[in-house]
Amino acid sequence: MYILEGNIGVGKSTFIQKIKQYLPELEVLTEPVDNWTNQIFGQSLLENFYKDTSRWAYTLENLAMIQRTKDHIEIQKNKNPKIVVERSIYSGHYCFARNSFENGHLAKIEWNIYQKWADFLIKNCQTPSGFLYLKANPEVCFERIKKRNRMSEKKLTLAYVKQIDQWHEKFLVKKEEIHKNLKNIPVLQIDCNTDFENNPKILKKHLEQINNFINDTILDTKAILEKTAFFEQNL
Predict the structure, then answer these.
(1) Does the predicted model carry a pTM greater than 0.90?
(2) Where are the domains of the chain?
(3) Least crowded by CB within 10 Å, which of 81, 87, 97, 98?
(4) CATH topology of domain 2-234
(5) Active-site positions?
(6) pLDDT band at 232 (very low <50, low <70, confident <90, very high)
């Protein structure tokens, strides 16, 4: 399993569709955003979150964790190692929920409850083979957010986008304050400051990077498993 991560507006949904189109050997699973953007529960939780963050932070983060965990568990049953998943329980915890807590939108007791569940799930979910980190400057992401003009994102601010960018850097680049199971997971960082959707040359470069990264890490994992099996049989 490989997880596609990145800031709001960096182009994850577009990118994963390009993977699906040009790398058909990879299986993809998109982020279940309909669960928190559309009127499934009678209202858009994401829109509510941006309008009144303190009121809706705990509700939104719990719903996102539940859905992403369900997806993660289902993926673990799949024997295809070449699966790319859009976002995860990890960025939900280390970027979005953590940001809400640090900004005072989650009460201490809410954060403690959320964290207990997140720690339990991270320990018991199969770790990914790698992270695909789409990176762009917050200002670039914010311009793309304004351009796509989603109703649920009308109240989104550049300051918030900058904060989420910082948490992604801490999680995926610096690897600070994350679970020990994630410390050694390889990360492929892809520069998405330049539009890749309408630039075939740049898109091809990005897709080649991903294809090579996945093939290399699968070989590394296979070699480790073979060595482990050899030692177990001969001890």
Answers:
(1) no
(2) 2-234
(3) 81
(4) Rossmann fold (3.40.50)
(5) 86
(6) very low
